[in-house]
């Protein structure tokens, strides 16, 4: 046997397991990839969506403590506080969110809705004007606050 044939045979034997594994029909599966646990922020948002505002507050306040510059967390804290009718705490949270992110459309919308809850149509309109400036062609936040202002005005006319 020539040395070239010998090396070909050695190489074929060495690579045989790799070739067999590539064409294997084994039913074994790779280990399952563990999904990351949702963060406190994600759980807090889920609690808001489920209208569990007290739970949302607990989770989102932990986020704000760990990440004091998280405007989204402060916005959802304000929203949850407003839903619980804790208007002073709601206002403070929205102000914190807007201090961190002055053009935070969600915080502007929700602050406008808070002003409506407080019966202050002029301040709600100020927030609507900010949203009209930020999204002149429209955005969900502007549309939502515009509807809320319209509904508030309609109830005022009936009174």
String of helices and strands: HHHHHHHH
Mean pLDDT, to the nearest integer, reads 87
Described by strand count, sense and barrel closure, the largest sheet is: none
Helix content: over 70%
Count of DSSP-assigned helices: 8
**Structural class, judged by helices and strands?**
mainly alpha
Whole-Å distance between the termini?
Answer: 107 Å
* C-alpha Rg (nearest Å): 29 Å
Can I get a quick summary?
With 159 residues, the chain is mainly alpha-helical. Helices cover 74% and strands 0% of the residues.
Structure description:
The structure is a single chain. α3 runs antiparallel to α4, α4 (71-83) packs antiparallel against α5 and α6 (105-117) packs antiparallel against α7 (121-134). Residues 6-12 and 16-26 have low confidence and may be disordered. Helices cover 74% and strands 0% of the residues. The protein has eight helices and no strands. The protein is an all-alpha fold and 159 residues long.
Topology summary:
Blueprint (H helix, E strand, L loop, with lengths): L2 H20 L17 H10 L3 H14 L4 H13 L3 H14 L4 H13 L3 H14 L5 H19 L1
Helix pairs in contact: 2-3, 2-4, 3-4, 4-5, 4-6, 5-6, 6-7, 6-8, 7-8
């Amino acid at each position: 046997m020539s040395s070239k044939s010998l090396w070909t045979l050695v190489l074929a034997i060495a690579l045989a397991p790799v070739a067999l594994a590539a064409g294997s029909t084994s039913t074994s599966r790779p280990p399952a990839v563990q999904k990351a646990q949702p963060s406190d922020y994600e759980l807090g948002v889920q609690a808001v969506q489920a209208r569990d505002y007290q739970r949302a507050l607990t989770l989102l306040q932990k986020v704000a403590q760990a990440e004091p510059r998280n405007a989204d967390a402060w916005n959802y804290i304000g929203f949850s506080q407003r839903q619980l009718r804790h208007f002073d705490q709601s206002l403070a949270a929205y102000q914190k969110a807007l201090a961190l992110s002055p053009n935070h459309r969600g915080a502007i919308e929700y602050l406008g809705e808070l002003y409506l809850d407080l019966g202050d149509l002029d301040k709600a309109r100020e927030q609507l004007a900010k949203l009209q400036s930020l999204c002149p062609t429209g955005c969900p936040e502007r549309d939502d606050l515009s509807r809320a202002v319209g509904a508030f005005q309609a109830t005022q006319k009936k009174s």
